[in-house]
Predict the structure.
Amino acid sequence: MQTVLSIGVDALAYGLALFVISIGLSVTMGLMRVVNLAHGAFAMIGGYFASYAVRHLGLGYAAGILVAVVGTVVIAIPIERLLYRRIYGAPQLTQVLMTIGITFCVIGITNFAFGPTLKTVPLPPLLQGSVDLGFRSIAAHRIFVIICGFTVAAGLWFLVERTNFGVKVRATVDNAAMTAALGVRTEVVYAVSFAVAIALAAFGGVIGAELLPLEPYYALRYMVTFLVVVSVGGAGSIPGALIACLLLGTIDTTGRYLAPEYGEFFFYLAVILIVTLFPCGLAGRMK
Amino acid sequence: MVASLDRTIATPSFTRRMADRGVIGVLAILVAGLAGYLLMPNNLALLTQMIAVGMLVLSIDLVTGYCGVATLGHAALFGAGAYGAGIAAVHFGITDPVAMTAVGLLAGAVAGLVSGFVILRAHGLAQLVLSIAVIHLFHEAANKASGWTGGSDGLSAITPDAFFGVFEFDLWGVTAYAYGVILLAVVFLALQVLVSSPFGMLARGVRQDQIRIAAMGASSHSVLLRMYVISGAVAGVGGALSAISTQVVGLDSLSFTLSAEALVMLVLGGTGSLYGAMIGTVVFMLFEDTLSAANPFHWLTIVGALLIAVVLFAPKGLYGSAAAFAGRVRRRPA
């Protein structure tokens, strides 16, 4: 029972950290149809920003998150203008190569600037301890991640389903040309969505730093995981991504607890099964 | 693209001409092999590894360049060949180098069948994700089955017999290198015949327009699967050569990194051309050898920048761009 509960909490926290990072990827992939392998690199940049701000500039945790989000978006804007613009609508192989290239560059530069060691984002005292639930105590940080994950999911759901901007986003996902013909400035929709996606990636990179440790190869190591989440959940679907993250988080965490010697064998086996059964993802409507 | 297809069909002596061109390619390989031996006699291990990886790049070219399947998991076939040859030598006592190569070829073809069966079920993003999942699955399986594969320590103590009982695999690697050059020439000739055959034509048709191929009565899935098996055999030969020459097989031969790097080599040289695949391999690995000795992380930055530059400025790769340039010069009236 204790093990089941530990697995449950860890799986939930891990899955929701994954969700916060990869939901941006899912939305931009559904919108712009770009296979963006560099998304994890932006999460990593966010984490490094926060780590630097908190440890070397002496800022608080919340301020660190703010610095990470703003800093990462500022870095991402010129990259989007100069590089991503050119691969919208290009063949998939081109997109893969360009974004892998960006990932490699980010890894190399990060390693040059910060060294190959593991970086941490020191937690505030409030999140360091554990919360006693009476029958069991849970690390406060895990609870924080879980709350953040559900808040982001609810916020995004509200943004996409209940606001004027969300209507434009959904219309652009369904048929960009038709939406543009109706007078929606799709390039603004693209730019805002890209910025929100990067900001969420940076935010996820910071709050998930305890679960997905920050080091230069972060971008390469979790690149696959984020892509898998989008592919399993279906590009552009928020509930799909949430289900996929919780499912994959559970499979991965359970595998680590019960059969650590198999590594990620069961994780990838599950991925192959799900993708084979649902080629468009669990909640996909990709044509 | 369609126009070029029509033209090639209309020319009757096309197959013949391509076969002739294949002979030129074989001669080029032999000359380059000799030049490599004379120029870098102390670095034959690198050159042999270059040939082995070159076969992996050729095999990716078959599915990516000719059939249009984007894959990031092709090292699975290379690693299968390497482990196949290695396990045959260590556990079953098959130490004849030619027999080891044959085992590698078979293992690669089987791995090609399995991964093709999985990967070809999906399209687009799902296909890419499946290919990544396949390479990780192979990697974890090899890691777990350490009784057979040596796990993360690698499979060592592979001691191939002397070639025909005469040429021993010595410390300098002359025999392994010569074997590699000959093997590459044979593989290249076979592939040149394959890609200019009607089947190769069909594969290119599948890349250009699957619906039209289906309307013409051919099954594109069957073409792709057969190409995957052939591609696996080529990669398997490369893996076996790597096992024979280095006498050790590590988990890195089944890694995502190798898959991605081999794809980079292919794109650098130019997809859809056997020459492009080989030129890309040679340029990439020579650069890697010189630059990564200085600093491996700068090397990663350079690869990344190189990739971005190729995508932006030379989408046809080195060979493709050079060939297009030469074509323009030739067509210009004198």
